[in-house]
Amino acid sequence: MKTDVRDLLAREAADVRAAEAVALFCYQVKRWIGSFTAAPGGLDTLVLAGGIGENAPLVRARICEGLSFLGIELNETRTAEHAAVISSDASRATVRVIRTDEELMIARSVCRRAWTRHGHLKQTPATR
After folding, report:
1. What is the pLDDT of residues 2-52, one digit of tens each?
2. Closest to 59 (Cα-Cα) out of 92, 88, 28, 89
3. Going by C-beta distance under 8 Å and a sequence separation of 6 or more, which residues neighbour residue 103?
4. For the chain, what are the domain ranges?
5. Is residue 102 very low, low, confident or very high in pLDDT (cuts 50, 70, 90)?
6. Which distant-in-sequence residues (6+ apart) come within 8 Å of 7 by Cβ?
7. Do residues 60 and 97 lie in contact, with contact meaning Cβ atoms separated by under 8 Å?
8. How far apart are CA 47 and CA 26, in angstroms?
9. 77 contacts 55 by C-beta, under 8 angstroms
């Protein structure tokens, strides 16, 4: 069974497992953000991309909730309207939503990994 985040969000009020799945996902993303911002001592821009980053304003808001120590403050209207920049004007860090073709990125990554293992890949603009 393929479960989409939209299905989980629709069921989370009535299904504790759906609610836990969404909460765990948001927690894990926050953990990665914290991990990646620790070494450089903060961030200037946070980019949310892919299906959830582009299409799930509630999940974006939950991920960014509690990250004010990094200078992240969302604008609720921009977040709900799927604006390209969803941070508030007062936010020290810019939060951007960028469209991406996930399938293409996965295919490129797989090709690059498979071909470089066998020494057959030449770097071209399509494989970078």
Report:
1. 568 889 999 999 999 999 999 999 999 999 999 999 989 999 999 999 888
2. 28
3. none
4. 5-101
5. confident
6. 18
7. yes
8. 15
9. no
What crossing angle do the helices spanning 57-64 and 16-38 adopt, rounded to 10°? 50
Whole-number Å distance between alpha carbons of 5 and 91: 27
Residue length, the chain?
128
**Cα–Cα separations (whole angstroms), residue 11 to 8, 29, 39, 97, 113:** 5, 21, 37, 25, 38
What fold does the segment set 5-101 form as a domain?
A: Nucleotidyltransferase; domain 5 (3.30.420)
Farthest-apart Cα atoms in the chain, separation: 52
